[in-house]
Write a structure and sequence with these properties.
This protein is of the alpha+beta class. It has one domain. The chain contains two helices and four strands, in the order E-E-E-E-H-H. Strands 1-2-3-4 form a four-stranded antiparallel β-sheet, covered by helices on one side. A hairpin with a 2-residue loop joins strand 1 and strand 2 (13-20). The longest helix has 16 residues, at 49-64. It starts with 5 loop residues before the first strand and ends in a 15-residue tail after the last helix.
Length: 94
């Protein structure tokens, strides 16, 4: 995984998006012990930024239950200059 392209934080909670080989990795979780440890609660990979955007919205709502914070995260997501990220061909399914 290369560097993180987007991070949303609210107190001890976070959602981040990073480019990976087959699309965009969205991962989320909490900071513990005053930010010394980052504990991931989940992650998903999406082929495009539209899917990643939807996961960011859903995850912020799951973490906070606050629609205003979802709007804030989506505004920040929309203003983020994501790097150009060409996708590789997916491997054949098993």
């Amino acid at each position: 995984m290369s560097s993180t392209a987007f991070v949303w934080k609210d107190y001890s909670r976070f959602v981040a998006v990073a480019p990976v080989v087959h699309g965009w990795l969205v991962f989320w979780g909490q900071y513990r012990e005053l930010g010394q440890h980052r504990v991931r609660s989940g992650n998903r990979t999406y082929r495009d930024l539209a899917g990643a955007r939807r996961r960011v919205a859903d995850t912020v709502f799951e973490l906070t239950r606050d629609p205003a914070l979802v709007n804030e995260a989506l505004v920040r997501f929309g203003r983020t200059a994501f790097p150009s990220h060409p996708l590789t061909i997916l491997p054949e399914p098993l």
